[in-house]
UniProtKB/TrEMBL annotation:
The keyword DNA-binding applies. InterPro entries: GntR_C, TF_FadR/GntR_C, Tscrpt_reg_HTH_GntR, WH-like_DNA-bd_sf, WH_DNA-bd_sf. SMART domains: FCD (SM00895), HTH_GNTR (SM00345). This is GntR family transcriptional regulator. It comes from the Bacteria. PANTHER family: GLUCONATE OPERON TRANSCRIPTIONAL REPRESSOR (PTHR43537:SF24), TRANSCRIPTIONAL REGULATOR, GNTR FAMILY (PTHR43537). Keywords: DNA-binding, Transcription, Transcription regulation. It holds the Pfam family GntR. It comes from Marinobacter xestospongiae. Residues 7-74 form the HTH gntR-type domain.
Length: 229
């Protein structure tokens, strides 16, 4: 990724470092040195520090007193916990969407879902599908209008994207499952069927969790719940 001076410097630094973490250039547990990053990007330490706080909100770094920032771990247990929380946040979003969407929202929602479907049919880059899926989530957040839920989901995007980088090959072979999920969930929302929507989300994200766990532990068949921290 080529660094470019942005409108919001700290956020762009955060995006730059986030991509390094998501792609494994910065490894889990690796310390991120403010002075080194500031010199590399020719920016101030204050801007780097602000960016690191953003990465902490995004669940990509831990800031440890007197030690600084380190990239968060992403082993099987951490990934499973990540998907537990993310799945429940999405369930909350969809429940509120079912309650609040109005006929004037229908075309906009369906338009974004169509973009995901088109990306799936093209069997394009996995991350392009993920970004289109996030666009759907963003529109749903706008319709629901809960700023706290929106903030929580937005902060999870980079950590979730990180898991897709790790499992891209497995996910690419399973795009039909994703297409089926969006079709089923869309129909459940249009029907205002909470039970069907919850079922679609639970089944899909449990499946996605397994893809991630396989990517993280390709030779380990032990369930994540039985592994030690």
């Amino acid at each position: 990724m080529e660094f470019q001076v942005p409108n919001t410097l700290a956020e762009q630094i955060a995006n730059f470092l986030a991509e390094r973490i998501m792609t494994g250039q910065i490894r889990p547990g690796e310390r991120i040195h403010e002075v080194k990053i500031a010199a590399e990007l020719e920016v101030s330490r204050a801007s780097v520090k602000e960016a690191l706080y953003t990465l902490e909100r995004w669940h990509l770094v831990d800031i440890i007193p007197r030690k600084g920032a380190v990239a968060t771990w992403l082993d099987a247990e951490h990934a499973s916990e990540l998907y537990d929380v993310y799945m429940h946040l999405l369930q909350m979003l969809v429940e509120r969407l079912i309650d609040r969407w109005q006929p004037e929202h229908r075309d906009r929602l369906l338009g974004h879902i169509e973009q995901v479907s088109r990306r799936l049919q093209e069997r394009t880059d996995v991350l392009a599908v993920v970004e289109a899926s996030f666009d759907v989530m963003d529109v749903c957040c706008e319709v629901v209008g809960n700023p706290y839920l929106t903030e929580a989901l937005t902060n999870f995007k980079p950590a979730v994207s990180r898991t897709y980088y790790l499992s891209a090959d497995r996910y690419r072979q399973d795009l039909r499952r994703t297409a089926s999920f969006f079709k089923g969930l869309t129909q459940a929302v249009l029907d205002r069927d909470r039970v069907a929507a919850a079922h679609e989300i639970t089944e899909f994200f449990n499946h996605q969790r397994q893809l991630i766990l396989q990517a993280l532990s390709p030779d380990d068949t032990t369930p994540a719940s039985s592994r030690s921290a």
